[in-house]
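Format notes (please read before filing issues)

Several people have asked whether sequences and structure tokens are stored in separate files. They are not. Every record keeps both together, in the order shown below: the sequence lines, then the token lines. Line labels are part of the format and must not be stripped during preprocessing.
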Amino acid sequence: MADQEEWSTNANEAINISIIQAGQSSPATLSTFHPKFTYPIFGEEECIFGYQGLKINVRFAAHDLLPNVSISYDKEFKAVEDTKALDIEETLKEWMTETKVSFQQPTAFDTQIQGDASAKDWKPPGKLIKSYTSRGRKFGIWSGELTDPAVQQLIERMQILVSFFIEGGTPIPLDDQDWSLARWTVFFV
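Then the structure lines:
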């Protein structure tokens, strides 16, 4: 069997998270960073087996956090009996919503971001409760109930970030009938 280290990739290093918005001719990247934790998704070792030169780009639209995942690699491990490369897309589908958009081709996602006329005037769901200026930039604090479908959509889109950045953090169940959404107020800045 092949050397396991040769075919294992540190998930924290392979994943690049980017915040993007429409640019002049193609989406502009506002920020790119790596996750702090990937063990909830890829196991305690935070390794992905079966690839060389693995890159996983997780991009979010800056205004509404619409996600897109693209996976590329130089080589994939050829299965030997029960040993095979991890199906990364299938693994991430458990953590990503809107899988049709999340896993569409990056060029289609770019076109969608570039053509989103609502992005310029987009406002978070809920009510504006306070606005302020800091360092010459205007900010607003918005409050919304978790029972609001627009608030739920934003929370669903950002759920994977909980596992990426909060030690022991787990996504909240938005579809559990025994769990009351009415008790939660969500704040956006």
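For reference, the curators noted about this record: The chain has six helices and eleven strands. The CA atoms of residues 69 and 76 lie 18 Å apart.
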